[in-house]
């Protein structure tokens, strides 16, 4: 049994990327894994100010919801990020969380397998490339981990556009294959 953490970064009700995150989590749970689905909706996540005190103390100077999320990620075997694509890039919430998790850098971590789930109104295959590249920058800082898979669903702009889409079943199967 693996510890799987799924981070849904969309703040929008009826989010298409959150629907994918839920299906990935359901698949991983069906496979017998311990699954935690974390939604950033309603979370307080302050911007990193670049003071780098976290590199000395192992903790951020801010007291918000990030330390609990970071603890879950540090202790996970698998981390799955789900994000809508905004202007051909990951959501700002996802980038802000990644920046704030800088305190993890000097710590020991369990995660090895990283997954990415993305949605966008645009349908072209190149649409999520920058989001994947941005996440790869974070992954590269954790040399024992790697991006295992990236699942993209285009053509879903409005809330709940993804309902009934085959990609939801693909997300479920991807989670089940963890």
Descriptive overview:
The protein has one domain: Flavodoxin domain (Rossmann fold), CATH 3.40.50. The protein is α/β, with parallel strands linked by helices. The model has no long low-confidence stretch (mean pLDDT 97). A five-stranded parallel beta sheet has the order 2-1-3-4-5, sandwiched between helices. 34% of the residues lie in helices and 20% in strands. β3, α4 (92-100) and β4 (113-120) form a beta-alpha-beta unit. The longest helix has 15 residues, at 16-30. It has helices spanning 16-30, 53-57, 66-74, 92-100, 129-140, 166-176, and strands at 3-8, 34-39, 78-84, 113-120, 146-154. It is globular and about 50 Å long. α1 (16-30) runs parallel beside α6. The termini are close together. It contains six helices and five strands.
């Amino acid at each position: 049994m693996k510890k799987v953490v799924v981070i849904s970064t969309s703040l929008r009700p009826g989010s298409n990327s959150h629907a994918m995150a839920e299906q990935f989590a359901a698949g991983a749970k069906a496979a017998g894994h311990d699954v935690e689905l974390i939604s950033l909706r309603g979370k307080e996540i302050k911007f990193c100010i670049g003071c780098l005190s976290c590199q000395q103390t192992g903790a951020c100077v801010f007291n918000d919801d990030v330390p609990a999320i970071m603890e879950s990620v540090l202790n996970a075997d698998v981390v799955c990020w789900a994000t809508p694509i905004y202007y051909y890039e990951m959501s700002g919430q996802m980038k802000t969380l990644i920046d704030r998790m800088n305190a993890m850098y000097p710590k020991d971590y369990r995660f090895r397998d990283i997954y990415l789930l993305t949605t966008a109104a645009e349908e072209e295959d190149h649409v999520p490339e920058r989001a994947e590249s941005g996440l790869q920058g974070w992954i590269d800082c954790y040399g024992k981990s790697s991006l295992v898979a990236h699942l993209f669903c285009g053509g879903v702009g409005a809330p709940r556009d993804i309902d009934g889409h085959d990609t939801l079943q693909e997300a479920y199967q991807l989670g089940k294959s963890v």
